[in-house]
Write a structure and sequence with these properties.
Helix 8 (about 235-250) links the parallel strand 8 and strand 9. This protein starts with 5 loop residues before the first strand and ends in a 7-residue tail after the last helix. It has helices at about 20-35, 70-75, 80-95, 105-120, 155-160, 165-175, 190-195, 235-250, 290, 310-315, 345-355, 360-375, 380-390; strands at about 5-10, 40-45, 60-65, 130, 150, 185, 205, 225-230, 260, 280-285, 295-300, 320-325, 340. The chain is about 40% helix and about 15% strand. By secondary structure, the protein is of the alpha/beta class.
């Protein structure tokens, strides 16, 4: 039997099975790829996550952690200290003139990941090296390797942040990265078109998915009048979407409705919203399944990129979804079949009451949403198809 080819996945955060967002995508793709490839994960973990164990990951891949805190580098490598200090000054300058995205922490992480990568490939061969997020594309800068270089765009940020102060920075960055990567991954056909316009030649669509066994379809009931918003509120499109819902849509409902907000957030961003009656902020929740029962998921996003893992999670759980057209972009959804679409406050209100008053429609949306998730968005199917596409890839440089 021929030896498995090897793939190194580089990410700045520890993948977790059902945490939502990029961490969940990274976990399940790595798990499925491990059925066909020898998978190594190179990651650096923030101090707040140090106690989180990569135990599940180690069942199917090797985990290598890069140190990126200055005090750790100083303790282990004297010459690392001035280099990290220099990186910090670079990042601070970038933050002042460009964007909060270019934080000092990101700069430390890129430097530390690149440093660990160089040590790793001195004695080891990888057929593929996959970097997660365009923000970390610079990890491979100046690194000599014969591996096929893959950049996974969880979002095409130049599009997701269009109209913001970050747009021009990400246009320049993502165009530059096209020259240094052999393959780009994205979540949907619209994202593929955006990457082609930025100069990427080989683009593979690897959709987001959902753990169909973990999120099981339940019979829906709107009797409790619960609305649910899922997603990290440290991501600007989610912040903007939630504020839009609270300010323009929630006041159109009567006082019996409750809005549950689940996702990490900064207190300063929602001081006024937290005072409103009927709205509860729960912060990060490890197991969200109880919130999905007897609730309507609202996805009122006005901008953003990629595809919404929150929607796929709700579909699998049998939770009806009401979304803006932008929020549902890139997914194989049909209005009034497996989702309800609403692009104005009045439409959103009407669709919410429609699910409350029309139990037949509510059950149809619930059942057909689960069926769609089973047909297209199981991680096992997505991982198998991605592995097959990689097998067909040829090394462009030797």
């Amino acid at each position: 039997m021929a030896a498995k080819k090897s793939i190194l996945i580089i990410t700045n955060e520890l993948p977790l099975a059902n945490s939502g967002g990029a961490k969940m995508r990274n976990f399940h793709l790595a798990k499925e790829l491990a059925k066909y490839y020898q998978v190594t994960l190179l990651t650096c973990v923030a101090r707040r996550e140090r106690r989180k164990s990569p135990g599940d990951l180690r069942e199917f891949c090797e985990v290598v952690r890069a140190n990126y805190r200055p005090e750790e580098v100083f303790r282990r490598d004297f010459w690392g200290w001035p280099l990290y200090f220099y990186q910090g000054l670079q990042a601070l300058s970038a933050k002042l003139v460009r964007s909060a995205q270019s934080s000092r922490e990101y700069s430390y992480q890129i430097f530390a990941l690149r440093r660990s990568l160089r040590r790793l490939i001195k004695n080891r061969h990888f057929d593929f090296i996959q970097v997660e997020h365009s923000e970390f594309g610079a990890v491979l800068e100046g690194v000599s390797t014969s591996a096929i270089r893959i950049l996974d765009f969880h979002n095409v940020n130049s599009s997701a942040l269009a109209g913001t102060a970050d747009e021009s920075y990400f246009i320049d960055l993502e165009k530059k990265l096209a020259e240094h990567y052999d393959v780009a991954l994205c979540c949907s056909a619209p994202e593929k078109e955006r990457l082609a316009a930025l100069g990427y030649q080989k683009i593979l669509i690897v959709p987001n998915g959902v753990d169909l066994a973990y999120f099981k379809g339940e019979k829906f009931s709107a009797a409790q009048r619960n609305l649910l918003f899922l997603g990290s509120l440290r991501y600007q499109p989610n912040i903007e979407g939630l504020k839009y819902f609270i300010e323009q849509i929630f006041p159109l409902l009567d006082g019996d409705w409750k809005l549950e907000v689940v996702g990490a957030y900064d207190q300063a961003d929602f001081q006024q919203e937290k005072k409103q009656a009927g709205i509860t902020f729960h912060g990060y929740v490890e197991d969200i399944r109880s919130f999905l029962q007897s609730a309507i998921l609202v996805c009122p996003l006005l901008q953003g990129g990629g595809t919404r893992l929150k929607i796929l999670t709700a579909l699998a759980a049998g939770t009806p979804v009401i979304s803006t057209t932008k929020g549902a972009e890139g997914l194989s959804l049909q209005d009034n079949q497996n989702i309800l679409l609403a692009d104005s406050p009045g439409e959103f209100r009407d669709k919410i009451f429609q699910l409350l008053e029309d139990s037949v429609l509510a059950q149809k949306i619930s059942v057909q949403g689960r069926e769609l998730a089973e047909k297209f968005y199981g991680w096992e199917q997505i991982g198998r198809e991605y592995a097959e596409k990689l097998q067909a890839s040829k090394r462009p440089r030797l």
